[in-house]
């Protein structure tokens, strides 16, 4: 009886160990990304200097509002750097077009206004937020909520304003209006609705 109980316990331990290891093994196989680097190892880069928007050609740092970058599996046609953008709208537009063309976006980053001390500028009826191009100002879209249809505009006009903290989303909506949504739920219809 003792031996039977001992062997059952050992079998349970072995099966439990195998069962707990399967998700980790699958995560390693499925989450590796291109070249096995893994999406988790991709970090945002600074967009200071004379970096031009890959969607519209404007110099990223020279314009107000959120900016973005998309890291692709093939690094082309960006030549080993992420695609870079002067607005959230340019970021999404380029990414959607690239996906339609068969490219694989690994990670999309946007300015996270929960991470920065933004300045607010008012010109007539337009309200804009300062632009932040340093690498520490970005978060992955998987971690962000964007506000669509607010009174705040960006470099390309109506904008999606991203935040990583729910309290910041609520405060922003209370002051500037708009509809919050998961940044990963943005589609072409969202952009057309702006």
TrEMBL record:
What is an example of a Pfam family matching this protein? NosL
Recorded superkingdom: Archaea
**By its UniProt entry, which InterPro entries does this protein fall under?**
N2O_reductase_NosL (IPR008719)
Indicate what this protein is called per its UniProt record. Answer: Nitrous oxide reductase accessory protein NosL
The organism named in the record is Halorubrum aquaticum
């Amino acid at each position: 009886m003792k031996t039977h109980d001992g062997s059952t316990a050992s079998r349970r331990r072995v099966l439990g160990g195998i069962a707990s290891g399967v998700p980790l093994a699958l995560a390693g196989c499925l989450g590796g990304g291109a070249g096995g680097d893994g999406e988790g190892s991709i970090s945002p880069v600074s967009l200071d200097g004379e970096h031009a928007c890959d969607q519209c050609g404007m110099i990223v740092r020279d314009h107000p509002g959120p900016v973005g970058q998309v890291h692709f599996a093939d690094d082309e046609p960006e030549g080993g750097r992420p695609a870079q953008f002067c607005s959230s709208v340019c970021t999404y537009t380029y990414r959607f077009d690239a996906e339609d063309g068969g490219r694989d976006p690994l990670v999309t980053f946007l300015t996270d206004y929960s991470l920065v001390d933004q300045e607010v500028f008012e010109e007539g009826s337009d309200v804009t937020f300062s632009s932040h191009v340093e690498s520490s100002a970005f978060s992955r879209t998987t971690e962000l909520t964007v506000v669509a249809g607010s009174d705040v505009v960006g470099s390309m006009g109506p904008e999606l304003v991203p935040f990583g903290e729910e309290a910041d989303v609520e405060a922003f909506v209370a002051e500037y209006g708009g509809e919050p949504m998961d940044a990963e739920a943005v589609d072409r219809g969202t952009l057309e609705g702006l």
